[in-house]
C-alpha cells in the first residue's frame, strides 16, 4: 500500500515513512498523523491499522520511551496514544504520566503499556501534543529538541 505524506513530498510504496521534527516545527509529523490516523472516509478505512511512532532523538540513553499513535476498530473509533518505556511496567508508566499532569481522559494500562484514548474528532495537533507531553513526562530528553517519527504498517501490508 502507498504511504503518502504531503510535507515529505513523496509517496512511498512498500516501506515505512520516517523523519524527524522539532518542537517548534511539527508540520511533517502532523501531515503523517493526518494521513495515517485522523483521515476519514474511504481513505481512513484503507489506512486502518497504521500507526505513527514517535521517539526522542536519543542522546546516548538506550532506554528510550515511545509513543505510538493509532486508531483502532473499523467504525467510529477514536485515536489513541500508547506510551511505553523499556524496563518499566504499564503501571509505572501510568504513574509517571499522571504525576506529570496528563489528564487527557482516563488511561488504560496493560503489563507494559499505558494508553490514552482521545475524542474521535481530535486533531493531529492535539494528538501529537499529547504524545510529546507524555514522552517528556517519561523523561525523554531529545537532542536539540528533535523527535523521530515513523509510520508503521500492520503485518502483511
Number of helices: 4
pLDDT < 50 stretches: 1-15
What is the string of helix and strand elements? Answer: EEEHHEEEHEEHE
| Major β-sheet profile | 7 strands, antiparallel
Tell me the number of strands.
9
Structural class label: alpha+beta
Strand content: 25-35%
Could you explain the architecture of this structure?
This protein is α+β, with helices and mostly antiparallel strands. 34% of the residues are buried. It is built from 4 helices and 9 strands. The longest helix is centred in the last third of the chain and has 14 residues, at 124-137. Strand 1 (2-5) and strand 2 form a beta hairpin. The strands form 2 sheets. A 7-stranded antiparallel sheet has the order 3-9-4-5-6-8-7. A two-stranded antiparallel ribbon has the order 1-2. The model is unreliable at 1-15 (pLDDT under 50). The chain has helices at residues 27-38, 41-46, 90-99, 124-137; strands at 2-5, 10-13, 18-22, 51-56, 66-71, 79-84, 108-109, 114-117, 146-152.
